[in-house]
Amino acid sequence: MKFYKEGLTQKEVAEKLGLSQSFVSTKLREKGVDTNTRVEKISDESVEEWTELYEKGWTISEIVEEHSVPKKTISKELKRKRQRIKKGYQISEDCVDRWFELYRDGWSMLKISKEYDVSTSTVSRRFKKRDEDIRENSGVSHEVVDKWITLYENGVTQTKIAEMYGVTQPNVSYWLKKKKEKK
What we know:
Blueprint: H1 2-5, H2 10-17, H3 21-30, H4 44-55, H5 60-67, H6 71-80, H7 93-104, H8 109-116, H9 120-129, H10 142-153, H11 158-165, H12 169-182
Helix pairs in contact: 2-3, 8-9, 10-12, 11-12
């Protein structure tokens, strides 16, 4: 109960003590602690700082690392502030710059889309808007494409290939078609 009163979540208390979360929850209820109404206090200043960082292109994971706050908390607060970037016009150019950096560092559009909670088509559309040849700079080697062709010819779906290699299905489709055209 001491750790819980100090602000740790039930999960954090359980991990710290090597217990299950349900055991901790049961014990707290037995001691009269209402575990359903616990609300973490987040300052408006913190949320504003997270929002500014997010709008500048920081990933939620980077904000978590910098501020030692659970990812779920930051995501919830950003959504509460309506800073969730879903529509292209809401995505700042700084944010797209950061996507390009990540992409050039080897991140797939799929990984970027998951990290920023947008669709892969949003990432792709913003890349295309800048006239970047994203396919040619994707870092997909001929050897990898040859493996994709072999997998595809052996009955593996494009979606499954994309999952295996951490890329998008349209990316796999593009390269399979491109390689077929060269034959």
